Amino acid sequence: MARDCDRLLAVPWPLLLALLGWRLEASLAATPFTKAIGHGALEVAFALFALRAFRLLCIPGGVADRHFRWSSQTLRTIRRHFDWVIWFLVPVGFVVYAMHNYRHATYSDSLERIALLVVMVGTAFLSCA
Predict the structure, then answer these.
(1) Which of 91, 5, 100 is nearest to 48 (CA)?
(2) I need a labelling partner for 11 at 20 to 30 A (CA). Which of 2, 20, 55, 69 fits?
(3) Rounded to whole angstroms, what are the CA distances from 123 to 13, 32, 46, 112, 126?
(4) Tens digits of per-residue pLDDT, 78-101?
(5) Least confident residue range of 64-73, 80-89, 99-108
(6) Hey, where are the domains in the chain?
(7) 35-50: average pLDDT
């Protein structure tokens, strides 16, 4: 029974993010900025779910440990990389999606480009590490 519950560990935060994004985007009283925030939350919710699910495959006693018999050092490295992506690249990706959908002449283009540059540098750093 405990193993069945382990499959659901990746769901709560992405589901909450998707529900908040959906409600912000579907609100009748929403401003264009609120709709952009909601759309950004919807866009990164699935990515967050996939990253959390793959990270859970690499926990001690998980699929990668028991089925693939990967070493504990490899699993630790993979979990560290997934943590880094979840805590750094997902929020910056959220900013990219939100600013892409919010067209404000003064802020959106420059902030979107800076955030996209940060995502690209972070991805390059992750691929080298």
Answers:
(1) 91
(2) 69
(3) 23, 30, 18, 16, 5
(4) 999 999 999 988 998 898 888 888
(5) 99-108
(6) 9-128
(7) 93
